[in-house]
Amino acid sequence: MIACPKHITGRMVPELAAAGREAYLGYRYGALLMGAASVRRTPRLKGAPSAWFNSADGRLIQGFLIADYNSDRWRKGDPDRPNVLCLWAPLGGRATRADLLVEPWSHWADLMADDLESMVPGISADLTRLDVYVWGHHMVIPAPGFLTGDARRGLTRPLGRITFAHSDRNGMPSFELATRAGYDAAREALAIVRGLPKSS
Fold first, then answer.
1. Which residues have C-beta within 8 Å of that of residue 175, sequence separation ≥ 6?
2. What is the mean pLDDT of the chain?
3. Helix (H) and strand (E) counts in the chain
4. Which of 22, 24, 91, 102 could cross-link with 6 by S-S, CB 3.0 to 4.6 Å?
5. Whole-model pTM above 0.90?
6. Chain centroid to CA 73: how far?
7. What would the mean pLDDT of 65-90 be, rounded to a whole number?
């Protein structure tokens, strides 16, 4: 089983090209910024205690995850507890890897802090620290037809005894789909091994 982005898989498994399965060359990837925003108080949003928050209003940030969302502290909903907000900003062609490396940390931190303030007005007063992480080639960017197309499906099938995992298998960059891809690849590997003739 191999579990890595397709542009790396193609280098590690030359048999893909030999089998005419070179569609991985058409996979598009985009840079990703991640942030860890330490806050004095967990944001209070409408309804039940939030686990995550999505917004299309920001220039960069698409949303955030509340770090302790699966803990007793979260279940009790103590609004005064300090926390860390995990921010994600898939750039999808709006900035290149070179842009990420050329601009200083403060450039990205200021943009992320502004976006966070627009999502949760007043949160800037509670922000104590903002760490920024740059991922230059993290996320596959699905174009129209990519998810249902033959090219992606063809790359998910086993190649001999090699099975393929990673979120690229399903064409969308998410933890849940990466987990599912691993599960599917493991089932395929098990079927291959069970189908092999027994050694004497």
1. 167
2. 84
3. 7, 5
4. 24
5. no
6. 26
7. 80
